[in-house]
Fold:
Amino acid sequence: MNKRITLQDKEVAYTLRKSKRARRMRLAVYCDGSVVVTTPRGLQETVAERFIREKTEWLFSKIAFFKQFEGKPVARYSNDDYLKYKESAHALIERKAKSFADQHGYQYNKLTIKNQKTCWGSCSRKANLNFNYKILFLPEAVQDYIIAHELCHLKAFNHSKTFWSLVSRMIPDYAVMRQELKKSGITFV
Structure:
């Protein structure tokens, strides 16, 4: 559902999506400048509007960030690319994840490669790791950071100081890698 909201005297167009799978509200800004709010079904639109207003500064910063790339080419990947590169990505990530896990005493169950639009990786409470196949196209140091990040969630299922301490043991310059990832992420759709 296409909507509009006025924030700081500026009108912002957004798409409101209601999902039965959503457990919480989510605000996303994509590289084409589109804004999407996803809410659980049954949530009133006024709650979504209040959520957007609370995130105004973040929203404008993301819109400004993506505007700097207007008119520049963006690499687009299709489902055929996913099928073509899925096995290579799995082999690379599995090798690196196993190496990190062995060195740092982590254990995970299943490792899955997915074709995601907004996420590089995730870790489930059942110790399953999921990764975006597009990791294959990132610099090696950034690949390592993403894999280490998800492994650390096996011991700290949040982004607390404890979690970042675990990450820094594997990737001492993780803050630099996070910045590199933000730069690299713009080219993947």
